[in-house]
């Protein structure tokens, strides 16, 4: 029986101002385009600002002598998202956060192994690009930023080209610029006791504390900018390690608690979810198993998304499990673009 190799990677992208692209020889001329019949800005023509150039990062691998995307094997104990971020940094020097999941490719390695690689889109911001630590090495001899329209022809493998077609379809609909809301169920909690007689006072168990620590790199892979939590102790303790890792404060909110949910009036919960979506920044929301389905429904309502059975699956999480909901920043009416579920068995 053939062995299975799991790997993860990214399709890194950035938008370069048209003037810069023209200077580098990768884009169209930097002069503005004109449309006849417009205002008299230039001899009776309306000036149309140049469109930014969408660029994609390709790597030239040293040993294989091929052109591909950043990727690598999943280490023992790693999650796929964690591996994708780590491998991208190791091969390119870029510290990225994951956007939309682009799917998986499968191929055989020799006669005894089958390799499965999962990919995400990953935006490279100007600050991220400036902080790159890349130098040519034994694995990657060169990095090349290529206009997206030309990248497909440069890729060495059919599987990579087919994956890139998914990326191009998203780009054609202006759906690359995304943000995510991660719904997280608290880690394993202790039962009620004389020290914590009320439900909201229950702390995490030793196992729960370990789960909260293990979650950190996987949650961090999606680049959370804000962390929201139920006021229950078990939720606050679950997000404490990721908050410390990111140097972020936890925004505790009663509207995310099970006690509030038990009371039946979810108007404040709806308001909070609406604000999170309107802000358009990556966020973690930690709550309780009974509350998660309503939080997912509020995400649907706040974005005009189509409901379905996928919501039940995405919220039926074990302690310490989470689901990542992706949305478009530029086209909010597009609704939920994708959901990733991580029902970790810690």
TrEMBL record:
Gene Ontology MF annotations: 8-oxo-7,8-dihydrodeoxyguanosine triphosphate pyrophosphatase activity; bis(5'-nucleosyl)-tetraphosphatase (asymmetrical) activity
InterPro entries: His_Pase_superF_clade-1, His_PPase_superfam, Nudix_hydrolase, NUDIX_hydrolase-like_dom_sf, NUDIX_hydrolase_CS, NUDIX_hydrolase_dom, Nudix_hydrolase_domain
Main EC class the enzyme belongs to: hydrolase
GO BP annotation list: AMP biosynthetic process; ATP biosynthetic process
Listed Gene3D superfamilies: Nucleoside Triphosphate Pyrophosphohydrolase (3.90.79.10), Phosphoglycerate mutase-like (3.40.50.1240)
Pfam families (alphabetical): His_Phos_1, NUDIX
Keyword annotations from UniProtKB, A to Z: Hydrolase
Enzyme Commission number(s): 3.6.1.55
Domain Nudix hydrolase, residue spans: 38-168
Similarity annotation: Belongs to the Nudix hydrolase family.
PANTHER family: BIS(5'-NUCLEOSYL)-TETRAPHOSPHATASE [ASYMMETRICAL] (PTHR21340:SF0), DIADENOSINE 5,5-P1,P4-TETRAPHOSPHATE PYROPHOSPHOHYDROLASE MUTT (PTHR21340)
The protein, known as: 8-oxo-dGTP diphosphatase
């Amino acid at each position: 029986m053939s062995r299975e190799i799991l790997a993860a990677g990214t399709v890194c992208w950035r938008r370069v101002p048209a003037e810069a692209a023209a200077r580098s020889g990768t884009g169209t001329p930097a002069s503005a385009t004109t449309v006849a019949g417009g205002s008299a800005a230039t001899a009776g023509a309306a000036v149309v600002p140049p469109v930014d150039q969408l660029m994609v990062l390709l790597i030239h691998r040293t040993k294989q002598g091929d052109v591909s995307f950043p990727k690598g094997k999943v280490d023992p104990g790693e999650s796929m998202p964690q591996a994708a971020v780590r491998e991208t940094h190791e091969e390119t020097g870029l510290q990225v956060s994951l956007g939309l999941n682009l799917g998986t490719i499968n191929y055989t390695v020799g006669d005894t192994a089958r390799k499965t690689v999962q990919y995400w889109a990953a935006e490279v911001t100007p600050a991220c690009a400036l902080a790159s630590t890349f130098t040519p090495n034994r694995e990657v001899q060169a990095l090349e930023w290529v206009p997206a329209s030309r990248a497909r022809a440069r890729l060495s493998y059919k599987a990579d080209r087919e994956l890139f077609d998914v990326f191009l379809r998203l780009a054609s609909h202006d759906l690359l610029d995304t943000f995510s809301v991660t719904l997280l169920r608290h880690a394993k909690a202790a039962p009620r006791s004389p020290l914590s007689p009320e439900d909201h006072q229950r702390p995490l168990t030793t196992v729960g504390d370990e789960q909260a620590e293990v979650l950190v790199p996987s949650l961090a892979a999606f680049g959370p900018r804000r962390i929201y939590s139920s006021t229950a102790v078990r939720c606050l303790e679950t997000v404490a390690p990721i908050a410390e890792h990111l140097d972020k404060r936890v925004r505790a909110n009663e509207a995310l608690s099970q006690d509030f949910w038990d009371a039946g009036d979810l108007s404040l919960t709806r308001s909070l979810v609406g604000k999170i979506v309107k802000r358009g920044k990556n966020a973690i929301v930690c709550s309780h198993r009974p509350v998660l389905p309503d939080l997912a429904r509020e995400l649907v309502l706040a974005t005009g998304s189509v409901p379905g059975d996928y919501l039940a699956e995405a919220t039926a999480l074990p302690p310490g499990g989470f689901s990542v909901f992706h949305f478009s920043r530029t086209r909010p009416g597009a609704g939920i673009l994708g959901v990733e579920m991580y029902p970790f068995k810690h």
